[in-house]
Design a protein that fits this description.
This protein is mainly α and 157 residues long. It has 5 helices and 3 strands. The protein has 2 domains: 3-40, no CATH class; 48-156, no CATH class. 63% of the residues lie in helices and 11% in strands.
């Protein structure tokens, strides 16, 4: 049985014992289950799971923050009296090897307000992204490479 499934099962058992399936109880049960599984891990097979869960949580918080900040920027731009938009398409070179990683990265970019993944080159080394309002193409590429792609690579590869 995978450790993630076991962790979810422990969270459900905890909520059942508490008689409450509200999100705070499920979240606490997940954290408690994670801690229990960490205490009784059998190296080296399980160590990957205990390294990945904090990375996924960190990435989820990072992505949530990016969505909030992007929404605020987009709202300010749209509501300004005379917006000076600079739409552009930027080619982002990819270091990801797996198709799952490339698709995940493309979808994360599309889910971020103000950006849209348009296409992936036939050799899968370049992702074309449309940006609603672009200041500096190099800065945008660095942001995608250092923030999004690096975190996706850490989780998946």
């Amino acid at each position: 049985m995978s450790l993630l499934l076991l962790n979810v099962l422990l969270a459900l058992v905890w909520s059942a014992l508490m008689g409450n399936f509200d999100p705070p109880y499920l979240l606490f049960g997940f954290v408690l289950g994670y801690f229990i599984l960490w205490l009784f891990q059998k190296p080296p097979r399980t160590q990957k799971y205990f390294r990945e869960v904090p990375l996924v949580i960190e990435f989820s918080l990072f992505f949530l923050w990016e969505i909030v900040v992007s929404n605020i920027r987009l709202t300010i731009t749209i509501l300004s009296p005379r917006p000076q938009l600079r739409p552009a398409v930027v080619a982002v070179p990819l270091d990801l090897k797996s198709e799952v990683g490339i698709v995940l990265l493309a979808n994360l970019i599309t889910l971020t307000p103000g950006t849209l993944s348009l296409d992936i080159s036939s050799n899968k080394h370049t992702l074309f992204v449309h940006i609603f309002d672009l200041d500096d193409p190099e800065k945008f590429v660095k942001k995608i490479k250092n923030n999004y792609e690096r975190r996706v690579r850490e989780i998946l590869e």
